[in-house]
Amino acid sequence: GAQDSCSHRCGELLGTCSCQVTCQSLGICCPDYKEFCLQISPYSGSLMGGKDFLIENRAFNASSVLTCRFKQKIKTSGYVTKDGKAHCISPLLYETGFIHFEVSTDDGLTFPYSGTWLSVHHSKVSDGEKCVLVNETKWQYYGTPNTDGNLTLTWTHQALATTLINIEVWGYQETGDSYSENWLAEWKYLYTLAREIPNTGIFSFVPVPAKGNYSMWDFGILRIIPSSYSDGQSNIPSVWSGEHALAWHLGKGFRNDANAWATVKCIEWDRKEEKLPNFMEEIIDCPCTLAQARADTGRFHTDYGCDIEKGSVCTYHPGAVHCVRAIQASPIYAAGQQCCYDSTGTQILTHDSTGGSTPDRGHDWGSPPFMKPPRIPGFSHWLYDVISFYYCCLWSDNCHLYMKRRPSSDCRTYRPPRAASAFGDPHFLTFDGLNFTFKGQGEYTLVESDLTSLRVQGRTQQARFPNGTEAQVTGLSAVAVQENNSDVIEVRYSEDLNLEVLLNQKVISFSEQSWMDLKGLFLHSTSDQSITVMFSSGSGVEIRGSGGFLALTVLLPEKFMNHTQGLFGVMNGNTEDEYTFKNKTTMSVHASPQQLFEFGANWAVENGTSLFTYDTEFLLNNFFYGEKHNASFLPVFLPYEDPADPLVKEMVSLCDSDLFCRFDVLTTRSLQVGSSTKQSHQNHKLLVENLEPVISCGWLDQPTNGRKNGTNYLLGSTISFICNQAYELTGSKERICQVTGTWSGDTPSCVP
Question: Structural domains in the chain?
Answer without folding.
Answer: 38-120 (2.60.40.10), 127-256 (2.60.40), 258-406 (no CATH), 418-638 (no CATH), 706-751 (2.10.70.10)
